[in-house]
Specification:
The chain is an alpha+beta fold and about 300 residues long. The protein has 2 domains: about 110 residues, 3-Layer(aba) Sandwich (Oxidized Rhodanese, domain 1); about 180 residues, Lipid/polyisoprenoid-binding, YceI-like (Lipocalin, Beta Barrel), CATH 2.40.128.110. It is built from 6 helices and 16 strands. An 8-stranded antiparallel β-barrel has the order 9-10-11-12-13-14-15-16. It has a 5-stranded parallel sheet with strand order 1-6-5-2-4. Strands 3-7 form a two-stranded antiparallel sheet.
Length: about 300
């Protein structure tokens, strides 16, 4: 079976026929509520229940169905059509160009007042310490450990609707290891990380990161790295620059949020234990110089 790519004019004729196709809008429900083809039902293909809802929408697998999405460059209707073919539907149409092409052809639509998209106001936003987190991964040749470090405080600065700066205080005494939770070795490792060998948290209980600049990534899209962040990390007795890419956006509640995965060379911050650059004949005590961080930052 193949997907029938249907133009707006052809679909308009099919809808006048004796067996018109069931129109299915596969976009988000809020987009459907805002604007839709007359008579269309909504079944968002991004939701895992998409296929489960189909028997109620079109119980007969031979029923003609026509799927549409946003328009050119967005493939949600093609994804939905492929799912229906797998379910056994035999007359699957896809509206070429989606609802955008339908409107451009002068065809009728049903509209409702649009819900304003969330926007950011200029100013300072306090970081939500419950929603935000830092996860670390340290490795040697064959093994690794993963854990968490708590944020103690933080703020983001928004200027002209975009991230312009910010600062964070990291509680180094809060280091935990997730993969050793409940194991007697957990506390052994944490003492090792907190003592003079690594982060010396008795003398340096906090680390700090200050954003010095944040620039959009050319061609960046939602869900992919779209922001280039530069800043200064102060760890132990050293302040040094650090740069990374982040995926930034606005939550449905209008909160600034970002995620990033980055690696930094711990030895630049005087964390030298087990480094092959500083010691010879380490054997099984070799520890990789790079520490990986996974960041999740949400502001209030």
């Amino acid at each position: 079976m193949k997907i029938a790519l249907t133009t707006p004019a052809t679909l308009a004729e099919l809808l006048k026929g004796l067996r018109p196709p069931v129109l299915i809008d596969v976009r988000l429900s809020e987009d459907y509520q805002c604007c839709r083809l007359p008579g269309a039902v909504n079944n968002c293909v991004f939701e895992v229940a998409f296929t489960e809802r189909m028997p109620a929408i079109a119980p007969d697998l031979s029923t003609p169905v026509c799927l549409y999405g946003a328009g050119e460059g967005s493939i949600e209707s093609r994804m939905a059509a492929e799912k229906l073919l797998r379910l056994g539907y035999t007359a699957v149409h896809e509206l070429e160009g989606g609802i955008a092409a339908w409107r451009d052809a002068g065809m009728p639509v049903e509209e409702s007042p649009a819900t304003p998209a969330p926007t950011l106001f200029d100013g300072k936003y306090r970081v939500d310490l419950n929603e935000s987190r830092i996860q670390w991964t340290g490795r040697n040749l064959l093994n690794h450990h993963t854990g968490r470090i708590a944020l103690k405080a933080g703020e983001l600065i928004i200027t002209d609707g975009r991230l312009a700066g910010g600062s964070f205080v990291i509680d180094m005494t809060s280091i935990s290891c997730l993969d050793l939770a409940g194991d007697s070795l957990h506390d052994v490792l944490i003492r090792h990380l907190c003592d003079h060998d690594f982060f010396d948290t008795a003398l340096f209980p906090e680390a700090r990161f200050e954003i010095t600049s944040a620039a959009p990534v050319e061609g960046g899209t939602p869900g992919a790295p779209n922001l280039h962040v530069s800043g200064k990390l102060t760890l132990k007795d050293v302040t040094a620059p650090i740069d990374f890419l982040a995926s930034a956006g606005i939550t449905d509640q209008g909160k600034p949020a970002a995620q990033a995965t980055l690696s930094f060379d711990r030895t630049l911050w005087n964390v030298l234990y087990g480094s092959g650059k500083w010691f010879q004949h380490l054997g099984g005590h070799l520890v990789n110089d790079l520490i990986e961080l996974q960041l999740r930052i949400v502001a209030e």
